Amino acid sequence: MCAASVIPGTTLGATRRIRSISGAATGQLARQRPAQPVALTEAEAIPLAQAGNAAAFEFLYQLHGRRVYALCLRMMGNPADAEDLMQEAFLQLFRKIGTFRGESAFSTWLHRMTVNVVLMRLRKKSLPTDSLEETLEPDAENSGPKRDVGAPDLRLSGAVDRVNLERSIEKLPPGYRTVFVLHDVQGYEHNEIADIMGCSVGNSKSQLHKARTRLRELLQEEIRQQARDERKAAKTPSGSLE
Amino acid sequence: MQCKELESVLETQGLEQLSQDARLHLGTCGACQGLVADLDSIVAAAKSLPAEVEPPARIWISLRAQLEAEGLIKGPVEVSDRSSWWESVSAWLKPRTFAMATAAALVLAAAVYVTRLPHNSPSGVAKNQPAVERPRPAQPQVKASAPPPSTSPVNVPTKGPTPSKQKQLSPSPSESASFTLNQAELDVPNMQLAGNSQVDAALRQNLRTLNAFIAECEMHLKQNPQDELAREYLNTAYQQKADLLAAMMESGRGDN
Q1: Cross-chain CB nearest to A70 (options B11, B51, B74)
Q2: pLDDT higher for B128 or B228?
């Protein structure tokens, strides 16, 4: 698959034949693999970056930056922290790129660093409700979402919009949030998530299920709250000021 | 199958691979049907969220500055062009390359000589000396082995006559170095492009960066001929340009 342009701002592609990297970068990794036209492949850029080539650094940044930024943004919930962490993640990546031996996909390696940086930051922030250890431990009976089996459920069909979902994702414990974003939003497979997070595939599946059921509870609560607000607004006489 | 068992199945196998038993249970249990339907809705909504978001351009600018400050970005000369050592030797033995490299080495020696000269000789163009802030540009990305600019004290008083009292009968050593380098650079466009285009493009980019840096230093020195630090920057840049030209000649390619 060929394209007809080069990456703006890079000096790499001046005379080289342009080709797309889709499929060449890291295989089956992601649902929406960027299909931008580029001047060289990731495999070619990595050794150049290991030698300190500025354009290769920029190429790798351009190739993965959007996914990393989306992950940081969704994990942190605000652009300022996301920018800070993205820069930190790439800085760590480029500091250690000389040690990359290709044993795992480059994208997985980068995402592992990003997740570590993000979780470290969240740890420092010390969210009051859930500890990371608890949310990453699959066998802890109390760590999973509560569910009253057989109780009447508030059906979410048609009620899950992006705003509600984004808001609820922010309320997830960091461990759940990471697995959910990586799998359901960014399209990674469980074996890749296990590699990124340093856990087993079974653990990743378990975390994902718990994240989804916790989200369901949060969304149900969101819908109930909205219904309460609407009732309250309906009871308030029009034109009266509170 | 009971509801708790179904939940266990969902946890270990996910929504996509439900067993026959699980499907049978779903057909008879409204609560579990609701659970699976809700989870499906959540998954569908999550897939509609953007997996990629364009980051602000300032992140790369800041990141690159940090990489340069830490010395992680090195000159393209360091990049392996995948040629074997005997190819490098044979390239050196090509007459034109050898001659050009020799010229570059002479320029380098001249630049070193200039660096060590006491700077009481004027540049000859300093009629006015407005108070302009000394340029302190980022180091151009040339060879990692190139010496960094010194952080020697600013405005070292010079001895000897002031520039205005000296006549310019011949070009100063730094002007000579500049002239020789520019002459060497003139031959570069005629060289054949070959081999690794990335390295070639990066070399050209570095040459442009260096030229811009040199021009800035020269301009500043015209206005502030006694600025020792700026002169040191300029001389270092000359050295780097000589290195760069030598590297370009060695690889048999040039600018333009």
Answers
A1: B51
A2: B228
Cβ-Cβ contacts under 8 Å, A158 against chain B: 41
Residue A103 belongs to some domain of the structure? no
Residues of B in contact with A201 (CB under 8 A): none
The verdict on residue A188 lying in a domain is yes
Hey, are the CB atoms on A94 and B67 less than 8 Å from each other?
Answer: yes
Chain mean pLDDT for chain B: 66
Torsional sign, CA A73, A74, A75, A77: positive
What does chain A come to in residues? 242
* φ, ψ for residue B70, nearest 5 deg: -85, -5
Whole-angstrom distance, CA of residue A140 vs CA of residue A146? 13
Query: DSSP state, A19?
Result: E
Task: Dump pLDDT digits (tens) for A33-68.
Answer: 444 444 678 999 999 999 999 899 999 999 999 999
**Domain edges within chain B:** 3-43, 84-250
pLDDT tier for residue A162 given thresholds of 50, 70 and 90: confident
d(CA B83, CA A125): 51
Are the beta carbons of A59 and A44 closer than 8 angstroms?
no
Q: What is the CATH number of the domain that holds A137?
A: 1.10.10.10
Report ipTM (2 d.p.). Answer: 0.72
Model pTM score = 0.53
Q: Does some domain include residue A204?
A: yes
Q: Is A50 on the interface with B (CB under 8 A)?
A: no
CA distance B141 to chain A (A): 9
Q: How many whole angstroms separate alpha carbon A136 and alpha carbon A134?
A: 5
Contacts of B5 in chain A (CB under 8 A): none
Kind plus residue range of the DSSP H or E element containing B173: helix B173-187
| Closest residue in chain A to residue B38, using alpha carbons only | A156
Specify if A183 maps to a domain: yes
In this predicted structure, the answer to whether residue A161 has a pLDDT above a threshold of 90 is no
Is A55 in Cβ contact with B45 (below 8 Å)?
no
pLDDT band of A239, cuts 50, 70, 90: low
| Structural domain containing residue A181 | 129-142+157-232
